[in-house]
């Protein structure tokens, strides 16, 4: 739905011009259509005020309404119901336009009422369903008090005159105030202008024939060229046709000529009938033109989107696929040759899952189903390709549903991106993060993850142990040899222990000089024997600097057998308590958790 730039007149002359135009329109309506001494049968002045309000910023509304209020008072006092009715009628006229403007502004958010069907319907309902019904009651009361006309006739005259005048004139005036006619002249190719002029000339000739020359009532005759103009020229042509029809038919009817003279009634009734005819012509042409205009914009947007899509697909390094609802590839971008080593033409007609390793096909299918079930959302999935060129070993597929004009999914567009290098860097970073940078032991996080996994195995009946180790008097090492000497001791300590550990066992540095060893498939007795062997391997001194100085180190340890029914925190706490007892038992010893 198009938004347009709202006018914001700053000139002091702008409201004066608005008031003058309103006064001229009101005076003309009263002069030519106040047939029975009551309200005018034709009223287009409020259509001008509605167009002013709907195309301008709210800041301009008070000035425009004040100018039209004064103009309405003058027209009513001089040519209409008289001075006594001037003030209330001015208030009622301005209220009608204000009600329509407020409703349209609220529901349309500055969108033009001529752009497509929805805003046009909102405008019609605001005018005919609310504003003219409400203000008609007040206007009929004023007319009843100041003229001999009955209340019911006055209300009907007000409603038909204002509703039909607003329907016919407001959309045309909006197009005029927004400069749509000028834009159409500048943007339309010459051949289309010639076609439009020819169609409007045909319409004019048909209308003149119907209202001046035809021997039989042929009010249906202008409708065919009217619809043709709506199709070929759009809402500008439809609006111009309504203006031509109003001018020719209106002059003919007011001068007592034309097919409406067959009506056996007053001139007012004939004018009302002509306005109904104009309104029906309006409802036939402008909505059709608005809908066509919307479809034309949609088609243009689709063309632009298609051009962008083709440019991206044909020059992107990623593989772009169009996939049907059945999962069959309907289009593959040229990059498929480079990325997966297969010509795009050979992929068309194949199932998209044929590109995926069988182990990952279920995940890819699930992502496709989710994208089709929720159009408008993007779904990502990683998979290993079945066929690949070069070192491609991991891909990411991003899929989004393609929808029709009803919003229903009709297929998928998917982009396949090579993320092999990204995954390799990710694995390298994970390996770095899993190792203690100083000693080469597992990091605290990595060790605890392994402990969690072993706790799960213990819950299934596996027998494993956790050994918590703390180097004895390590602070003294740092104080005497510095942190570089302490670092050498920590590194040497781990290197001495590693040969005694089995492939499934793990050693991790929990912090400072505190280490933990996870002994898989090992009972407490075997773990105690392993601890003795570890202590024996530390009998030889460890170098602390490059000057040949070396020291012997010992450790205290707490041992706990993993209980599958307990928690990781409980196991660590039990091992830590056993370690605490070992330290307070003279150090360089092992204690079992209770």
From TrEMBL:
The protein's name: Diguanylate cyclase
Compartmental location: Cell membrane
Q: Which positions fall inside the PAS domain?
A: 305-375
According to its UniProt record, the EC number is: 2.7.7.65
| PAC domain mapped to chain residues | 379-431
Record PANTHER family: BIOFILM ARCHITECTURE MAINTENANCE PROTEIN MBAA, DIGUANYLATE CYCLASE DGCP
- Quote the InterPro entries the UniProt record gives: Biofilm_reg_signaling, GGDEF_dom, MASE1, Nucleotide_cyclase, PAS, PAS-assoc_C, PAS-like_dom_sf, PAS_4
Residues annotated as domain GGDEF: 462-594
Organism for this UniProt entry:
Sphingobium naphthae
Q: Which UniProt keywords apply?
A: Cell membrane, Membrane, Nucleotidyltransferase, Transferase, Transmembrane, Transmembrane helix
PROSITE patterns in the record: GGDEF, PAC, PAS, PROKAR_LIPOPROTEIN
The cross-references to SUPFAM superfamilies, in alphabetical order and at most eight, read: Nucleotide cyclase (SSF55073), PYP-like sensor domain (PAS domain) (SSF55785)
Q: Where are the transmembrane segments?
A: 12-32, 38-54, 90-108, 120-143, 155-176, 196-213, 219-235, 242-262, 274-292
Bilayer topology reads: Multi-pass membrane protein
| Any one Gene Ontology molecular-function term assigned to this protein's record | diguanylate cyclase activity
Domain of life where this protein originates? Bacteria
| Subcellular location, principal | membrane
